[in-house]
Amino acid sequence: MKYFQEQFDALLEYRSDEDNALRDLRIRAFNNFKETGLPNKKWEEWQFTDFSLIEKGDFRLSREKDLPPIPAHIPGRIPNTYLIFIINGHYQPKLSEVPNEVLISTGLEHFQSNPKSYSFENKSVGVLGSSNPFISLNTSMMNSGLPIYIPNNVRLSKPIQIIYLTTELSDALMNHPRFVFHLGERSEATIIEHYIGSTPISYFTNSVTKIEIESNAHLNHVLIQEDSAASSLAANTDYILHRESELNTNSISLGGLLYRHNIKLNFKEKGSSANLNGLSLIENKQHHDQHVIVDHSSNACQSNQLFKYILSDKSSGVFNGKVVVREHTKQTDADQSNKNLLLSPHALMNANPQLEIYAEDVKCAHGSTTGQIDPEALFYLRSRGINKQKAIELIIGGFAKEIIDSIENADIQTYVGERVTSWLDGTMHHG
Predict the structure, then answer these.
(1) 169 in Cβ contact with 157 (< 8 Å)
(2) Could you tell me the residue range of the domain that residue 116 belongs to?
(3) Under a CB-based contact definition with an 8 Å cutoff, are residues 82 and 412 in contact?
(4) Are 210 and 236 in contact (CB under 8 A)?
(5) Is 257 inside any structural domain?
(6) For residue 258, is it within any domain?
(7) Could you tell me the CA-to-CA distances from 100 to 103, 151, 179 in Å, in that order?
(8) How confident is the model at residue 388, as a pLDDT?
(9) Can you state the angle between helices 20-36 and 2-14, rounded to 10 degrees?
(10) How confident is the model at residue 105 (pLDDT cuts 50, 70, 90)?
């Protein structure tokens, strides 16, 4: 905790002329973080993930001096997309392409007009789970990210890709980006939140993304995590859905040493639907942990979850999904599924799908399966003249294809498919 205190004090000094209300929020949030500390194995919702890598990391906050030369080619660029480019925590407006219909303000401007969006108080305590100190930490040290507002009746012709690149580090850095996305009534958009790293030096990113979808709006949200091998990413995504809105999400994770993604979704008004899909490809000693909470607090809402993990070497994964159906809620339809494929006898998966139902008029199902490559499927392919390695690749590719196919945009789908193929080739080669 010592280096967090040092970096927080340095931040307050560096931003001594900051808005008083924002400064007060930072102080209250950091005091809250100090009271709780980082999660440990005694915390039920966090027990399978070791955060000592972050606690002992001695990371410092990124400053202007950490802005490296801009690469000639921006990694991870997906064709036919608008671009918001952030490198080492610093937004690059000259290299970004923002559609005219979309409004981007400074963090301070947005905070002053929407202070509730920057709250660190955890509304999930009690029936929905334990507190989240990473949100308090993010609020206290917010130094990156953007508010993005899409007005009513806007239908974007192309996705917005946010590339959050960490590269060319001389020492261990941390960043705490805060993204706030607001999709107006009857609007449609696709947003890609893309974390990429290209440095051997350890770094820590602690992101908070708050997304509000107004009535009859439709959002596709894709999170792609391709951080460097020595990095840690704590991602926190909070969705609020209003009347008859639609949400499709895809969470794709391939990189990083430590990855924890907290997803919270609240059906604030009736008639909304959400499809949440995830694919984690984990190798070496990587650890990927995803927690999903879907709060059915309004009538006639539908949610579907499908999260898949592919684990090789000595990697480990966690899936903890919870569907809560509130009392007096009617016509709830919720399905939750987790499927895991172990490519190594040393890989470890912890899965805990949960239903908490306090109403009667519901249709809910959940389940989880973990296993190895089906020997009968392998035998069938071998009997057709396909060699063993190629047969294994086909089986694994087929396992991942369901998630890839759920991505609505063809260019994003192609990019993710190519990254999965590349990961698979590397795994088969060194395996």
Answers:
(1) no
(2) 2-372
(3) no
(4) no
(5) yes
(6) yes
(7) 8, 11, 19
(8) 83
(9) 180
(10) confident
Q: Answer yes or no: is pLDDT of 126 > 50.
A: no
Give the tens place of pLDDT for each residue, 263-302: 999 999 999 999 999 999 999 999 999 999 999 999 999 9
Q: How many structural domains is the chain composed of? A: 1
First to last CA, the chain: 38
User: For residue 168, what are the CA distances in angstroms to 75, 91, 203, 213, 242?
Assistant: 13, 16, 11, 36, 42
Q: What is the C-alpha to C-alpha distance for residues 288 and 332, in angstroms, rounded to an integer?
A: 30
Q: Mean pLDDT, to the nearest integer, of 185-206?
A: 97
Nearest alpha-carbon partner for 150 in 117, 188, 102: 102
Position 417: which residue type? G
What is the rounded average pLDDT for all residues in the chain? 93
d(CA 138, CA 71) in angstroms, rounded, equals 28
The encoded tokens of residue 147 equal 């508010």
Q: Do residues 306 and 278 make contact, with C-beta atoms less than 8 angstroms apart? A: yes
Dump pLDDT digits (tens) for 227-270: 999 999 999 999 999 999 999 999 999 999 999 999 999 999 99
Determine the Cα–Cα distance for residues 417 and 429; give it in Å rounded to an integer: 18
- CA dist 154 and 187 (Å) reads 5
Flag whether 47 is in a domain: yes
Is 421 part of any domain? Answer: no
User: What is d(CA 4, CA 15) in angstroms, rounded to the nearest whole number?
Assistant: 16
Threshold 0.85, pTM exceeds: yes
